[in-house]
Amino acid sequence: MENKIFDVGAGFYKSMVLRDSEIWLSQNKVDNLDKFEKAVQKVGMMKSAYALPLSYITGISFNDASVSTKIKYNDEGKEKSLNIGFDSEELSNEFGEYLGQKLGFSRSEVIEGQTKPLLWNLLLVLVTMVSTYILGTLEDTTQLADGGSRRSRSRGAIAKIIIDTIGHTGVIIIGLILTFYFIYKAYRRYSNPALVITYK
Q: Are 40 and 16 in contact (CB under 8 A)?
């Protein structure tokens, strides 16, 4: 785990390295430890890499079905948290376990509540169904690109291209496939609740 560069999603940070006494985080994708170290030591407004001393860390928590690990730390008397997203659940779990054991924290486990993940997955099902219905029954696709803001116009243009390319039937078929996938995902998550692991 140590001295290995990971591609992460942690706020603005894209790269991370666990060192002996620090966690290095960079806003850029870094592929070399020497470059990473120079970026961490850099000072001034253009600084893009930072070091989080391991001694600041007060707690670690992760869900064995999630790709992220949450680190709580104390910075100048303020309790802060950093959510580090990895490429896989296995990597997230391995990092959380390794860091918790390295810091000598005590480990606790609890099974997550089933309601919150179920509601989240059912919300995805509902959004997919409504979007499929709206896009599948839309007669005039030109109105999609006539939104108010630039961002909504670009989203509308993308939706227009999709509808014009695969047609209304294609939109409905893809929407149904996504809906059934999210229903399956909701059922699977509900029947197999994840384990929440905490180190303090």
A: no
Contacts 24+ apart (CB under 8 A), 67-72: 67/91, 67/92, 68/9, 68/92, 69/95, 69/96, 69/99, 71/23, 71/99
Exposed / middle / buried, residue 4 (Cβ in 10 Å: 0-12, 13-18, 19+): exposed
**Segment 119-167, tens digit of pLDDT:** 988 999 999 999 999 888 887 777 776 666 777 778 788 888 888 899 8
CATH class, domain 5-105, is: mainly beta
pLDDT tens digits, one per residue of 48-102: 999 999 999 999 999 998 999 999 999 989 999 999 999 999 999 999 999 999 9
**Terminal-to-terminal C-alpha distance of the chain:** 20
